[in-house]
Design a protein that fits this description.
The chain is an alpha/beta fold. It is 50% helix and 12% strand. It contains 17 helices and nine strands. The protein has helices at 3-11, 26-30, 34-38, 41-54, 68-73, 95-100, 111-124, 137-145, 149-156, 158-182, 199-205, 207-217, 237-241, 256-262, 275-280, 284-298, 318-328; strands at residues 60-61, 76-78, 86-88, 130-135, 186-190, 223-228, 247-250, 269-273, 304-308. Strands 1-4-5-6-7-8-9 form a seven-stranded parallel beta sheet, sandwiched between helices. Strands 2-3 form a two-stranded antiparallel sheet. α16 runs parallel beside α17. The longest helix is centred in the middle third of the chain and has 25 residues, at 158-182.
């Protein structure tokens, strides 16, 4: 399925449909915990099929669990019944550790579970495209090196960071290829940690590696959507749009209208209803108001698709999720 053509047709429609990052709230309807979901391919496939069936989303999206790839490298992960898994500790702390870091094969750790989930979902979902979730290279390196420590290392030992980034990129290309072979129509690549960098650092430590991944994986029939929800995004838009992704997904930390005014006409942009204040903690009334306000400001752009600003939390009320789709209708 050509997801790029589908997205552009919806962006240019007078009646726009949405593509929120929606997966974990399926746990409520399935009666399972977040921990059970992230460890089971059949449950993940069921969750994707449920979202595709019960909402007007443009595409089904696999779980945005950004601990999976780091765990495959050997990082320790903390699981929870109600929250998404989190990487704990620091796997790489110096150049020696970067040199010794082994690049895993797709399928190691829980990556095999996530690839199998996409394969099973591909069999279940026949009327909508399927997007696989994957972390971006700098965000993966940050989880391997510690998200705070990597900032210091970028200044003090940049060559160490580049060694980790090189290995992260090799793995992500292979992992993305496995998702493609499993039946995904595209990838949503999340690079949120790059959103706190200044433009020069982002240009050195994130964007070249992101572009390599996009160039290696993207084809006419397989789209890569780039996600960055950082508040420094407005300062690096030129570099972001130069990466050549099929679409760009932005968080609620930025002014969506301002992003669209700065975007080239051929750059498809998505965003950016706040997952925390609206989907998780809002009301149907506040969600309706927020969605209508977003569409009043951004709906006339022919390169815009409404979405959540980031991954929608598992505990978000379905009454708010339904109000989002209803407000668009």
């Amino acid at each position: 399925m050509n997801i790029r053509a589908l997205l552009w047709a919806q962006a240019q429609s007078d009646h726009k449909r949405a593509l929120p990052i929606l997966s974990f709230p399926a746990t409520q309807k399935m009666g399972v915990s977040v921990e059970e979901l992230v460890k089971s391919a059949p449950l993940q496939a069921e969750a994707m099929a449920l979202i595709a069936r019960e909402t007007d989303t443009l595409a089904a999206i696999s779980l945005m669990d950004l601990s999976v790839e780091a765990e495959a490298f050997g990082a320790q992960v903390r699981f929870s019944a109600h929250e998404i898994p989190a990487v704990v500790g620091q796997l790489v702390s110096d150049e020696e550790g970067a040199e010794a870091l082994r690049v895993p094969a797709p399928g190691e750790g829980r990556t095999g579970v996530f690839v199998e989930a996409v394969r099973l979902a591909h069999e279940k979902i026949t009327d909508k495209p399927l997007l696989a979730g994957m972390i971006g290279p700098y965000s993966l390196a940050g989880r391997l090196m510690d998200v705070t420590e990597i900032m210091y290392t970028c200044y003090d030992e940049p060559e160490t960071v580049h060694k980790v980034l090189e290995k992260a990129t090799q793995f992500l290309i292979a992992y993305g290829s496995a998702m493609k072979q499993a039946g995904a129509d595209g990838l949503l690549m999340a690079e949120p940690l790059a959103g706190i960098l200044n433009p020069e650092m982002a240009q050195e430590f994130s964007m070249p590696y992101v572009k390599r991944i996009i160039d290696a994986l993207q084809t006419d029939d397989f789209a890569v959507i780039y996600h960055n929800c950082g508040n420094a995004v407005p300062n690096m838009l030129d570099g972001i749009f130069a990466q050549g992704a099929a679409a760009y997904h932005f968080g609620n930390a930025v002014d969506m209208e301002a992003v669209l005014r700065a975007a080239p006409a051929d750059a498809l942009c998505m965003g950016n209803i706040d997952p925390a204040s609206q989907f998780a903690n809002g009301t149907p009334e506040s969600m309706t108001q927020a969605t209508r306000h977003l569409m009043e400001r951004c709906g006339h752009f022919g390169n815009f698709i409404p979405s959540s600003g980031c991954d929608i939390p598992a505990h978000s009320g379905w009454e708010n999720i339904n109000a989002f789709f209803e407000a668009l209708r």
